[in-house]
Amino acid sequence: MEAALELHNLSFVQEGDEVVVGRLDTGSYAVFPVDGAELLHRIAEGMTVSQASAWYEASFGEPVDVHEFVTTLTDLGFVREGGTQPDPVEPVRLRWLGRAMFSPAAWVCYGVVVALWALAVRRDSAIAPHPAQIFFVRSLLIVQVVITIGQTPLLFAHEGFHVLAGRRLGLPTRLGISNRLSYIVFETRLNGLMSVPRRARYLPFIAGLVCDVLIFCVLDLTAELTRNGTGSFSLVGRICLAIAFTVVLRMAWQLQLHLRTDLYYVFATALNCHDLHDASVAMLRNRIWRALGRTHRITDEQQWTEHDRKTGLFYGPFLILVYVTLVLIAVFGTLPVVRVYGATIISSLLSGTGNARFWDSLLSVILNLTQVVVLLVLARRKRRELAGRRPRLLLKEAD
């Protein structure tokens, strides 16, 4: 007698004419047509492969290659090996805190903070972000150390909001540490987010930006409230303004959609796309190769869903605007800071070893170079790890 196929616990989320099916524990998902998802439903409910095949033919009036279908399920990691137990369902910790942080009362508090900041900056624009705020003291070393140390808990808070927004939905979101390009970053692993309806995914994606806005407003308000009797900013206030400016840069950095930032995922979710970036880049490159007559370099576009391919036709050229945004951030945010830093370094190093500013600038340069070396080593190690991993089929259209 034919045994039923044993599957892991799977989630089914219908999105238009497609159904996203996947495993919450591993983050492996695939996009199925409605009839394919129905077939998978029957198998998950206990039908044997032969019974499910006969049901499909009776329901849809055409046969199905059930062996190829089972192979696809196996490649996706949906099939459970014989004798293994079903995936244990573990309770999600801190779900209550996630609900509290994004409750109606919490949103009212967040709105009050933003409103107070708006009133403060309207009364005195000195607390508005400006590159000169970075240099709150003359010592470059102190500036660098304070901002580096001060950013760490803020980055943790940013990702913590992502984690709590996911756990609010009962998802096992986790926090990790990695690097992106030349930066050490905290990363939130939003495991299982594709297991919830599309409208529920927006908050976990934008939760970090919500945190950044709140931190920025609180820092500026602290600077305003700690002014000296003369009206000038205190040391605490200047430090707050310096760190607040770096928060603004981090929020602007979210516009770099090609790096798959939080805003990229919001954009992709709104367009109902599963792999928008890779699909759009491939479509754009294929158009270029076709125009140049180099068709042998064209990428197979069938590995993405039809909707992703259609959306990618206009999203690919849109990426050019993203690079323009990157230039604007550099011109108005990064370069003014680099120019002052570089000028200070040069003048201090030329002042001679008898000047305290010489040693301050030298140590600052050494610290910067050390960070670059460490980050390059981490990036190289990460590339080796990725190269050694077996690729998984994620969010591709399943037959």
Give a quick set of tags describing it:
5 strands, mainly alpha, three-stranded antiparallel beta sheet, 8% strand, two-stranded antiparallel sheet, disordered C terminus, 399 residues
Shape: elongated
- SSE series: EEEHHHHHHEEHHHHHH
- What's the helical proportion of residues? 55-70%
Count every helix, treating DSSP H or I runs of 4 or more residues as helices: 12
For the record, give the distance between the C-alpha atoms at the N and C termini, rounded to a whole number: 27 Å
The rounded Rg comes to 26 Å
Low-confidence stretches: 389-399
Largest sheet: number of strands, sense, barrel closure: 3 strands, antiparallel
Mean pLDDT: 84
Structural class: mainly alpha
Spatial sequence of strands, sheet with the most strands = 1-2-3
Percentage beta strand: 5-15%
The overall strand count is: 5
